[in-house]
């Protein structure tokens, strides 16, 4: 993985206001869909009014997600780090690939819309395209191509990605299928991105971070959703699944509500998840367990499986599904006690 | 078509900052996919990590487009008009449906991402959902469902829509197939949205507009792309096609470049297109022909057909395709003379 972007040595730096849309697209296209893999599903790529993508099994899994500067990521952080275009492109890929993963599908194509202030540097946009391409490839979504996009001007930087996936003939894993007795399991990490966010917002200067701390920061800036785990869980008969983007408890509450069930989490398993975050929590005077329960953006998978069945590779048991005591009793508990929600809501204060 | 939104009589008005994301979604969902038609292609609608859409012919046509307040539309205009949420929802639908139309396909589903400042009124968002739904239905895209979406916060209002379409087994009509001798034809209108924009930006107060002037303004705020014409042109063997979103000459140059051809437009046909815009151009001291040649956003269709074949319903001949005199000679001419580009570029000044 590349750590730093190529510096822009022109002065004054070339900005998007200095190029036409066509000139900017000419700089972006060659940076997309690079790599050793060939992708047969992209029947018509960028450049016409729309793209055409093959959908062999007759159904497409479809999602859209937008990231806005200073809401979903910062361009400049308190600890001195500056998000690169590469980071933003990677994160846009990761976040959307994760939604497809959470259905048990794998991604076949995406389209991206980039809204930019006119003073945005062209080198930043090129770096964004590189990060998008690298995220797709390095996260293992080798069947996913960038089918097209849209460039526009705005006063704040924003990235929208819509993504398509295929289930290869399988049934999707929804949020609503968890049943009492099922095992609750997790793939990927939780809390690392939240720890990274805390380091970026109030930690020591980025230049002094240890390798371990830098790793936490990278999980915030370039998340690593476990893309193999979604289709594996689907094949293994997962009864319900979703990705954790707003926090384990908040997203767990959503899965629990959709399934009319209680997800009762095991405190010992949660403590084990918090353990590797201890050094950073001590450094920052923070609570590692709050990161585990409330931190989103690692894009791990929360899934349920019928009891007694072996969990697929990458999943660890963290609790069990129980019947709610009352009709409005669905939600997440920890050793039987209702968990505080925490986590991220775009609007509620 | 509803002309005015329901007024918000609560005080202080309820804003999106006063609701959680879930509460806001509860207000939006019932407003989507309303109408008499049932749509079998939406296999899984909003509410999970992703939607699932049926794709009977094994290929999906795919596009994405973003509109940003004060770039692609204004919330308050100089003539006193205020864009309603209904307008913005309608325009988002129209613009994206047009991209699918331009491939010769019809839309099957879309996903929408809405980025809003926290002070956005909830009534505005509800109105947006109504306008999106009405745009889809009243423009005739009755097979198109809203499959899902994303809500987020930002400092400026922005709407991204990604849309899927089907070709029903036909080959798509690309921009690159125009051949010397073909007839150049137009479906829908050109110049009306530009005239409407001029009225909104420098015309008389909205309350004093005539019915005809108000109609021009409506073409800017609620475009009427000719959605039947795209699939008809495809069936009739159109050799090339695109929608006119940035202006007849600018988009014509793109089609010409993709086809390595010259689109030679007929001055008499152009004058006929300018004729109905004369009263507004006289009122504003503007040039009706500049609106015809440079105005985008009507989302008419520019297409080419083999000579001598009858044009499908809705299309009018406006010129013919010629071979370029040199390798870099592709472009739009009027009676053999190179046309000035005009039109809209997001970045170039």
From TrEMBL, chains A, B:
Similarity section: Belongs to the thiamine-monophosphate kinase family.
Pathway: Cofactor biosynthesis; thiamine diphosphate biosynthesis; thiamine diphosphate from thiamine phosphate: step 1/1
Amino acids binding ATP: 149-150, 175, 245
GO biological process, one term: thiamine diphosphate biosynthetic process
Binding site for Mg(2+) 4: 49, 63, 99
Binding site for Mg(2+) 1: 65, 150
Keywords per UniProt: ATP-binding, Kinase, Magnesium, Metal-binding, Nucleotide-binding, Thiamine biosynthesis, Transferase
Residues involved in substrate binding: 72, 297, 344
Binding-site residues for Mg(2+) 3, renumbered to this chain: 49, 99, 243
CDD domains the UniProt entry points to: ThiL
Protein name: Thiamine-monophosphate kinase
Entry EC number(s): 2.7.4.16
Miscellaneous comment: Reaction mechanism of ThiL seems to utilize a direct, inline transfer of the gamma-phosphate of ATP to TMP rather than a phosphorylated enzyme intermediate.
Alphabetical list of PANTHER family matching this protein: THIAMINE-MONOPHOSPHATE KINASE
GO terms for MF: ATP binding; magnesium ion binding; thiamine-phosphate kinase activity
Protein encoded by which gene: thiL
Positions bound to Mg(2+) 2: 65, 99
InterPro entries in the cross-refs: PurM-like_C_sf, PurM-like_N, PurM-like_N_sf, ThiL-like
Domain PurM-like N-terminal: 47-166
Class of the enzyme per the UniProt entry, highest EC level: transferase
Function: Catalyzes the ATP-dependent phosphorylation of thiamine-monophosphate (TMP) to form thiamine-pyrophosphate (TPP), the active form of vitamin B1.
The organism's place on the tree of life at top rank: Bacteria
Catalytic reactions of this protein: thiamine phosphate + ATP = thiamine diphosphate + ADP
Classification via Gene3D superfamilies: PurM-like C-terminal domain, PurM-like, N-terminal domain
Species: Arthrobacter oryzae
Binding residue positions for Mg(2+) 5: 246
